[in-house]
Design goal:
Its EC number is 2.10.1.1. Its cofactor is Mg(2+). This is Molybdopterin molybdenumtransferase. It contains 7 helices and 26 strands. The chain has about 425 residues and is α/β, with parallel strands linked by helices. Strand 8 and strand 9 form a beta hairpin. The relative contact order is 0.13.
Length: about 425
């Protein structure tokens, strides 16, 4: 098996080199907007948020029991205290504890100022108002101190954090009702090709249904993006130019699938050269060799290959990091894990390959991975079954069963 890279006049750009050029060419957008906390999930925080209060704001009980002063009990013998009231969550005890007294207290309730400890209710014996407390060797137990989680003025969330459910919970606990976030990236995407037909239409000879718009639309389903589906563009230079220039007037990023290769009907490269700037790369990557990246009328442009597996691979490896860069997010390499391959994998040297795989974890924690099927860049059923990429370096000449390989799970990208 001979890789097509063998026919190139000069070495192809590696995936790492292409990514470095993309990230170097992009600068984060500066526009922000303010949203309520309920609308902030998945958005990118524009400014750091600091605590305006201690968390928790007051000392409170870590469990149901009885609150008392440590000086009133002994580490060596049980002591009987008099219960003089109750502290409920949201309704603090209003009196003042005297020596030898305690209060019934519930989880989250404010600990009276004169108390410093809480004993679990299961550890005491109660007879009316008399509460017998066993030896207490550790003063201060079962009390959450004010500010032990977050101190007043401390950072809650750093800027350019993609807000998670846990982040929202933390901000809400601190009373933050709204936050400034980076405005969504405006992205318009198109499919190109005379052979593409919309769903619901009958196929003529030579035609196929347009799957790329649904695949790419799914990849772009993210609250950080404001996405416009531009539809299908025919292989016509005039139509391509008019549609892309119109979209470029309002979008931050244009993405096309198809038309980025070297065939006679692949017009994307020529259009970029005439109306923008282009760094046209034939990447040492499989699937995904043809990729156009540049600007069109001041709008960032990604021209992806036409085959769906190549769309998926180039988006995950190159486009998604670029979009994150525009949002001000630092680049994070994808998680890769070593697994034992159980399939024979064919590969010729020349390009880094991202083969679709199915990985699983055994009861002992070990990882194995198998090929998901045929690896042709048009075989959507293989992508459907896969849950990871098997990442094979350019120098690899195939993998035998039992060898260790790197896998990149699909479901851990940010």
């Amino acid at each position: 098996m001979i890789d097509s890279c063998a026919y190139e006049a000069k070495p192809l750009l590696t995936v790492a080199e292409a990514l470095a050029r993309i990230l170097a060419a992009l600068a984060p957008i500066a526009d922000t907007e303010t949203v309520t906390l309920s609308a902030a999930l998945g958005r990118v925080l524009a400014h750091p948020v600091t605590a305006q209060t201690n968390l928790p704001p007051e000392r409170n009980a870590a469990m149901d029991g009885y609150a008392f002063a440590g000086a009133d009990v002994s580490a060596d013998a049980a002591v009987t205290l008099q219960c003089v009231g109750t502290a409920w969550a949201g309704r603090p005890f209003q009196g003042m504890l005297q020596a030898g007294q305690c209060v019934r207290i519930f989880t989250g309730a404010v600990v009276p100022p004169q108390a410093d400890s809480v004993v679990m209710q299961e550890q005491v014996r109660v007879d009316g108002a008399a509460v017998r407390v066993p030896p207490q060797p550790k003063p201060g137990q079962n009390v959450r101190q004010a500010g032990e989680d977050v101190r007043l003025g401390a950072s809650l969330c750093a800027d350019h954090t993609t807000l998670s459910p846990a982040d929202l919970g933390l901000l809400a606990a601190a009373g933050v009702a709204q936050v400034a976030v980076v405005r969504p990236l405006r992205i318009t995407f198109f499919s190109t090709g005379d052979e593409l037909v919309g769903l619901g239409q009958a196929l003529a000879s030579g035609q196929i249904y347009d799957s790329n718009r649904y695949l790419l639309g799914g990849l772009l389903a993210d609250p950080r993006y404001q996405v416009t589906d531009g539809g299908v563009l025919a292989d016509d230079p005039g139509q391509l130019e008019a549609a892309l220039l119109k979209a470029a007037a309002t979008a931050d990023v244009l993405i096309t699938t198809g038309g980025a290769s070297v065939g006679e009907a692949d017009y994307i490269r020529a259009l970029l050269a005439q109306r923008g700037q282009v760094a046209f790369w034939k990447l040492a990557m499989k699937p995904g060799k043809p990729l156009a990246f540049g600007t069109l009328a001041g709008c960032h442009f990604f021209g992806l290959p036409g085959n769906p597996l190549a769309v998926m691979a180039t988006f995950r490896q190159l486009v998604q990091p670029g979009l994150h860069c525009l949002l001000g997010l630092p680049y994070q390499p994808p998680l890769r894990l070593l697994a034992t391959c159980t399939s024979l994998l064919k590969k010729s040297p020349g390009r880094q390959e991202f083969q679709c795989g199915i990985f699983s974890q055994a009861a002992d924690g070990s990882l194995t991975v198998a090929s998901a099927g045929l690896q042709g860049s048009h075989v959507l059923s293989t992508l459907h079954k896969a849950n990871c990429y098997i990442v094979l370096p350019a120098t690899c000449q195939g993998v035998q069963p039992g060898e260790a390989v790197w896998v990149e799970p699909f479901n851990v990208h940010s």
